[in-house]
Amino acid sequence: MFCHPLCASWYKKFISMSQERRKRQQEREGVKQTKPMPGYIIVAVAIVVVFAAAYYVIRHRQTSRLDAFAKCLTAKQAKMYGAFWCPHCEEQKEKFASSFQYAPYIECGIKGSQAIAPVCTEAGIKRFPTWIFADGTRVEGEHELDFLGEQTGCSLP
Fold first, then answer.
1. Which of 43, 59, 98, 116 has a Cα-to-Cα distance from 105 of 20 to 30 A?
2. CB 123: neighbour CB atoms within 10 A?
3. Chain segment 55-111, per-residue pLDDT in tens
Protein backbone atom coordinates (compact mmCIF):
# COMPACT_ATOMS: atom_id res chain seq x y z
CA MET A 1 0.00 0.00 0.00
CA PHE A 2 1.33 3.39 -1.00
CA CYS A 3 1.14 6.11 1.61
CA HIS A 4 1.44 9.84 1.25
CA PRO A 5 4.56 11.37 2.93
CA LEU A 6 2.34 13.16 5.47
CA CYS A 7 0.59 9.87 6.18
CA ALA A 8 3.91 8.09 6.68
CA SER A 9 5.10 10.83 9.03
CA TRP A 10 1.87 10.61 11.06
CA TYR A 11 2.15 6.79 11.23
CA LYS A 12 5.72 6.92 12.60
CA LYS A 13 4.66 9.48 15.18
CA PHE A 14 1.66 7.33 16.16
CA ILE A 15 3.85 4.22 16.63
CA SER A 16 6.40 6.19 18.61
CA MET A 17 3.70 7.62 20.86
CA SER A 18 2.20 4.17 21.37
CA GLN A 19 5.56 2.83 22.47
CA GLU A 20 6.02 5.76 24.84
CA ARG A 21 2.55 5.21 26.36
CA ARG A 22 3.23 1.49 26.78
CA LYS A 23 6.56 2.25 28.49
CA ARG A 24 4.96 4.77 30.91
CA GLN A 25 2.17 2.32 31.71
CA GLN A 26 4.65 -0.44 32.49
CA GLU A 27 6.62 1.91 34.72
CA ARG A 28 3.41 2.80 36.61
CA GLU A 29 2.66 -0.89 37.05
CA GLY A 30 6.17 -1.58 38.30
CA VAL A 31 7.34 -3.51 35.29
CA LYS A 32 10.86 -2.50 34.43
CA GLN A 33 12.20 -2.57 30.93
CA THR A 34 15.04 -5.07 30.67
CA LYS A 35 17.44 -5.15 27.84
CA PRO A 36 18.36 -8.55 26.48
CA MET A 37 21.85 -9.69 27.45
CA PRO A 38 24.31 -9.26 24.60
CA GLY A 39 25.38 -12.50 22.95
CA TYR A 40 29.07 -12.03 23.69
CA ILE A 41 28.42 -12.05 27.45
CA ILE A 42 26.54 -15.34 27.17
CA VAL A 43 29.37 -16.82 25.11
CA ALA A 44 31.99 -15.59 27.60
CA VAL A 45 30.10 -17.09 30.54
CA ALA A 46 29.72 -20.39 28.68
CA ILE A 47 33.47 -20.50 27.96
CA VAL A 48 34.32 -19.85 31.62
CA VAL A 49 31.93 -22.60 32.74
CA VAL A 50 33.44 -25.09 30.28
CA PHE A 51 37.00 -24.33 31.40
CA ALA A 52 36.03 -24.53 35.08
CA ALA A 53 34.38 -27.91 34.54
CA ALA A 54 37.40 -29.23 32.60
CA TYR A 55 39.78 -28.03 35.35
CA TYR A 56 37.66 -29.71 38.01
CA VAL A 57 37.54 -33.04 36.14
CA ILE A 58 41.29 -33.08 35.45
CA ARG A 59 42.15 -32.05 39.00
CA HIS A 60 39.76 -34.59 40.51
CA ARG A 61 41.17 -37.41 38.38
CA GLN A 62 44.77 -36.57 39.32
CA THR A 63 43.89 -36.20 43.00
CA SER A 64 42.17 -39.58 43.18
CA ARG A 65 45.22 -41.20 41.54
CA LEU A 66 47.55 -39.55 44.06
CA ASP A 67 45.22 -40.79 46.81
CA ALA A 68 45.85 -44.35 45.64
CA PHE A 69 49.63 -43.74 45.49
CA ALA A 70 49.72 -42.34 49.05
CA LYS A 71 47.62 -45.24 50.33
CA CYS A 72 49.97 -47.69 48.59
CA LEU A 73 52.97 -46.13 50.36
CA THR A 74 51.20 -46.71 53.66
CA ALA A 75 50.35 -50.31 52.73
CA LYS A 76 54.02 -50.92 51.80
CA GLN A 77 55.03 -49.67 55.27
CA ALA A 78 57.01 -46.64 54.09
CA LYS A 79 57.14 -43.80 56.62
CA MET A 80 57.92 -40.13 56.29
CA TYR A 81 59.23 -38.46 59.42
CA GLY A 82 58.91 -34.69 59.36
CA ALA A 83 58.35 -31.56 61.41
CA PHE A 84 55.72 -28.85 61.06
CA TRP A 85 58.41 -26.15 60.98
CA CYS A 86 60.50 -27.85 58.28
CA PRO A 87 60.31 -26.13 54.83
CA HIS A 88 61.59 -29.26 53.02
CA CYS A 89 58.87 -31.32 54.70
CA GLU A 90 56.30 -28.79 53.49
CA GLU A 91 57.63 -29.07 49.93
CA GLN A 92 57.46 -32.87 50.14
CA LYS A 93 53.85 -32.64 51.31
CA GLU A 94 52.98 -30.30 48.44
CA LYS A 95 54.01 -32.97 45.93
CA PHE A 96 51.13 -35.08 47.22
CA ALA A 97 48.70 -32.12 47.16
CA SER A 98 45.49 -32.92 49.05
CA SER A 99 46.35 -36.64 48.94
CA PHE A 100 48.98 -36.16 51.63
CA GLN A 101 46.28 -36.95 54.19
CA TYR A 102 46.72 -40.62 53.12
CA ALA A 103 50.52 -40.59 53.19
CA PRO A 104 52.39 -42.41 55.96
CA TYR A 105 53.48 -39.33 57.90
CA ILE A 106 54.90 -39.15 61.42
CA GLU A 107 55.11 -35.71 63.00
CA CYS A 108 58.34 -35.22 64.95
CA GLY A 109 57.87 -31.60 66.00
CA ILE A 110 56.28 -30.82 69.32
CA LYS A 111 54.31 -27.56 69.31
CA GLY A 112 55.57 -25.06 71.88
CA SER A 113 58.85 -26.92 72.28
CA GLN A 114 62.12 -27.41 70.45
CA ALA A 115 62.18 -31.07 71.43
CA ILE A 116 61.66 -33.97 69.03
CA ALA A 117 58.86 -36.48 69.61
CA PRO A 118 60.07 -39.66 71.33
CA VAL A 119 58.89 -41.87 68.42
CA CYS A 120 61.31 -39.98 66.16
CA THR A 121 64.30 -40.13 68.50
CA GLU A 122 63.68 -43.87 68.95
CA ALA A 123 63.74 -44.24 65.15
CA GLY A 124 67.07 -42.35 65.04
CA ILE A 125 65.73 -39.44 63.00
CA LYS A 126 68.25 -36.60 62.82
CA ARG A 127 67.18 -34.67 59.68
CA PHE A 128 63.83 -33.85 58.11
CA PRO A 129 62.23 -35.20 56.10
CA THR A 130 63.47 -38.76 56.48
CA TRP A 131 61.85 -41.67 54.66
CA ILE A 132 62.19 -45.17 56.08
CA PHE A 133 61.05 -48.09 53.93
CA ALA A 134 59.91 -51.59 54.94
CA ASP A 135 63.32 -53.13 54.16
CA GLY A 136 65.00 -50.66 56.56
CA THR A 137 66.39 -48.40 53.85
CA ARG A 138 66.45 -44.80 54.99
CA VAL A 139 66.81 -41.68 52.86
CA GLU A 140 66.95 -38.09 54.04
CA GLY A 141 65.62 -35.02 52.28
CA GLU A 142 62.86 -34.23 49.89
CA HIS A 143 62.31 -36.77 47.09
CA GLU A 144 60.31 -36.98 43.88
CA LEU A 145 57.25 -39.22 43.88
CA ASP A 146 58.89 -41.34 41.13
CA PHE A 147 61.69 -42.22 43.53
CA LEU A 148 59.25 -43.14 46.31
CA GLY A 149 57.38 -45.33 43.82
CA GLU A 150 60.58 -47.13 42.81
CA GLN A 151 61.53 -47.74 46.45
CA THR A 152 58.13 -49.20 47.34
CA GLY A 153 56.82 -50.68 44.11
CA CYS A 154 53.85 -48.31 44.17
CA SER A 155 52.87 -47.08 40.73
CA LEU A 156 52.36 -43.40 40.10
CA PRO A 157 49.36 -42.03 38.26
1. 59
2. 16
3. 766 665 555 789 999 999 999 999 999 999 999 999 999 999 999 999 999 999 999
CATH of the domain at 59: 3.40.30.10
The three-state (H, E, C) secondary structure of 18-63, written as one string: HHHHHHHHHHHHCCCCCCCCCHHHHHHHHHHHHHHHHHHHHHHHHH
Q: How far apart are CA 20 and CA 33, in angstroms?
A: 12
User: Is the peptide bond between 129 and the residue preceding it cis, with omega within 30 degrees of 0?
Assistant: yes
Residue type, 112: G
Whole-angstrom Cα distance, residue 46 to residue 69?
35
pTM of the model: 0.60
- Flag whether 124 is in a domain: yes
